[in-house]
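Ticket #4471: structure output looks truncated?

Reporter: J.K.
Steps to reproduce: submitted the chain below (69 residues) through the standard prediction queue, then opened the result file.
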Amino acid sequence: MAKGTTAKDLVAKSDVELNSYIDETTKNLLDTRFRNHANLLDDTSRIAKLRHDLARALTVRTGRAKAKG
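Returned output as attached by the reporter:
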């Protein structure tokens, strides 16, 4: 997930794929936060990467909703 997903990649996804990506990224972010709290996380920058990927996906979803009506 946190491989630097671009908005261009997210726009190319269908609505179902985009919602699935948002759900999966949210779960990964929650898991990463728990692992960070337990001092089991080696790369703490992963949290920020996941947050940015999630924000991009939510922005694309909001843009589509506004465009539909």
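Triage note (M.O.): checked the attachment and the full token line is present. The radius of gyration is 13 Å.
Status: closed, working as intended.
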